[in-house]
Amino acid sequence: MKLMDELVDAYLDNNFEHPYYLDLYTGQVILDIDEAYTGEPGIDWDDEENEERYIDIPKIDSNEAFYVMTKFAQRTESDPEDRLFDALNGHRPFRRFKDALYELDLWDEWKKFEYKYAEEMIRSWMERFDIDYNELNEKHKANH
Question: What local confidence, expressed as pLDDT, does residue 144 receive?
Fold first, then answer.
């Protein structure tokens, strides 16, 4: 899997019990939860070196996710009856939005839109922290 795909997946995993970190030495994306779930040892935060080695990957929150769904509903031309807007304006909007995507056969279009948005957020996060994506991507390839 490409580094950007892993970063986007981490960003879009809005389960806050899943903390993801970027290993600046290897370019790996690390899910830092109990070894029983991942089969991998967690990050040793007692080792001071690790505080500089790993950086917390941001996550989309529910308000931002709702905003992205609204943007998609505004931009798609494949929903002339505004069923996506209707889904967002009712009870359980996330579930209803996904159901409407399937009913309208817009899942693939939505996933591309969501990925593009997440990729832009990851790139701007990397710029803010002066993280060189190309350099990390080379390390990532070497470690796979």
Answer: 78
